Prior knowledge:
The chain is of the alpha/beta class. It has helices at 12-16, 21-34, 56-66, 78-81, 85-97, 114-147, 172-186, 191-200, 213-222, and strands at 2-9, 38-46, 72-75, 101-104, 109-110, 159-161, 168-170.
Amino acid sequence: MLAIGYCRVSTAKQSEKGISLDAQVEKIRAMAVVHGAELVDVVQDGGESAKTLNRPGIQRVLKLVHERQVRAVIVAKLDRLTRSVKDLCELLELFERRGVALISVAESLDTGSASGRLVINIMAAVSQWEREAIGERTRDALRHKRSQGERTGNIAFGYRLAADGKHVEPDAPEQAVLAEVRRLRNGGATLRGIAATLNGQALTTRRGTAWRLEHVARICSRSR
């Protein structure tokens, strides 16, 4: 049985967590031996996200699958292939049409069997549900913090971190600059004109640099 291996890392940190490309290749080669498969190659995608299938390596694998040049695709772990349930379902349908099995080392799954296909779909669905649930909890937590006046992310111009280290409070000098920006804007001044006026008044940004058009535009967009 001819097989193609596929491995992926999205960041350098993943290599530090034991899922480096070399570690994945080793697992894939070992699994090929277990299945008695002849490994044609191990395709690698370094620095690529699994959110989409728009990756050079996976596109090469799919080309081989389409052309029926391999009978199995081996991955060290399912999320190395994709993190999308939709993409996974499409891949499984394609593999089934082409008579290609998907083998995952970490999950001990082989879609060459009906039970393997069922389990891999369930695992992917649960994994996506977990990520979406975490996202919802994070958004709710940030929304609650903002409603309580607590800091979330970078502090907007015109405010500073309060003494308690959690909340933000108005910063008088920056609030004066905001008031001047609003006055000039309401008077019909252009963004470039406002920047020139602020610089003419010896006013600077938070970093102590001269005002530029994009700085003023950012402030005006938040004031809408």
